[in-house]
Amino acid sequence: MKRDSRLSGVLHVLLHMAECDGPVTSETLAQMMRTNPVVIRRVMAGLRAKGYVRSEKGHGGGWTLARDLETLTLLDIHRALGSPALLAIGNRDDAPECAVEQAVNAALGATFDRVEALLLASFGDITLASLSETFHRRLAACRAATTAGERHHGH
To answer: Can you tell me where the transmembrane regions are (predicted)?
Structure first.
């Protein structure tokens, strides 16, 4: 089963946008994400409807963030994407009259509900600012390792 990676992709796009000075075109974002600009425009339209990004048309136009990263959470973005399913597994519904299927579905359904609630609560605790901080720490560590490697190898 193919996993839904839209949340990951949109977070990726938003963090790239946060690093840019000025608007970023759908074409540029599509190149970053290795997708079609139409896909970017469709996803960004949902974010624009929620007030998370804005778009400007014409020369020098493109997409910009409309909110600070500190005020946006993974939960906000998940909801802006239409709250896609979080779990790839689900209940059988081939024989709804079967008592065994009913018992299994009741147990699994309650568990699925608890897991989704925990995941959504966690999403609400993670801001895009914290993702950006993690990115910058990783980037600095990568640069430091590269610099140390160059010194070690005499470059």
So the answer is: none
Q: How confident is the model at residue 1 (pLDDT cuts 50, 70, 90)?
A: low
Place of tokens 């925990």: 118
CATH of 6-152 given 1.10.3720.10, 1.20.1090.10, 1.10.10.10, 1.20.1250.20: 1.10.10.10
Residue 58 DSSP code: S
Q: Is the pLDDT reported for residue 150 higher than 70?
A: no
Mean pLDDT of the chain: 90
What 3-state class would DSSP assign to 56?
strand
* Cβ atoms of 133 and 82 closer than 8 Å: no
Whether the predicted model's global pTM rises above the 0.70 cut: yes
